[in-house]
Amino acid sequence: MAETTSFRSSINGFNREDVVSYISSVLDKLTSVEKSNAEMQAELEKKSFNCDELMQERIVLSQELSEAKERNSALEQTQAELTERCAALEVRCEELEKACKVNESKLGAAMLEAKRFSEMLVKEANDRAGEVYHEAYESVCVSSANAKEIDAKMKELSVEFDQAMGEMRRNMKKLIAGMKAFSENARDNGAKFLYQSEFSEEAE
């Protein structure tokens, strides 16, 4: 609200002191207003500078927020992919676990069958080995008996041969003695007859 000022009257118009006082008061107020305005301007510039800094900081934060959102989006995408892969791996693990159980069952059956087969083979091998052993034992017994029989025959033949040789030697001795006697008789009768035998020395 504008301040109302009244001046005292004087002979030449308004009172000089009142006018000067008023002007001085107005100048003081104007000076105070200008000072206040300058202070406010300085404060405004300071706040404007702070506002610029805040705006710059806001821009930086906005960029960082945008980058963070992009990273978060990428992480969410990665998480979704990992979740999908985990789900697929869980399904695969379940399939492998079922396959393992089936294979374990088949393996157990195969091992049981192999055990039965091996036991059967061992039994057959043992039976066959027993048969071969008995056959070999019988063959050895037969061969041994034949060998004994052959040995006995060889001994008999050796005895017979020795006897035959002894008989032949005796006969040879008799024959040699007869030939010697015949040779002596022939010489006595004037005959030129000389009997020599290579066997005679051995037979003697």
Fraction of residues in β-strands? under 5%
Written as H for each helix and E for each strand, in order along the chain, the element string is EEHH
Q: What is the arithmetic mean of pLDDT?
A: 79
Major sheet: order of its strands? 1-2
- Please provide the count of β strands: 2
- The proportion of residues forming helix, as a percent range, comes to over 70%
- SS summary, helix count: 2
Rg, please?
Answer: 76 Å
Gross morphology is rod-shaped
Structural class: mainly alpha
Most strands sheet: 2 strands, antiparallel
Give the termini distance in whole angstroms.
192 Å
Condensed summary:
The chain has helices at residues 16-188, 198-203; strands spanning 9-10, 13-14. The protein is mainly alpha-helical and 204 residues long. It has a domain at 9-120.
Descriptive tags:
rod-shaped, two-stranded antiparallel sheet, 204 residues, disordered C terminus, 2% strand, 2 strands, mainly alpha
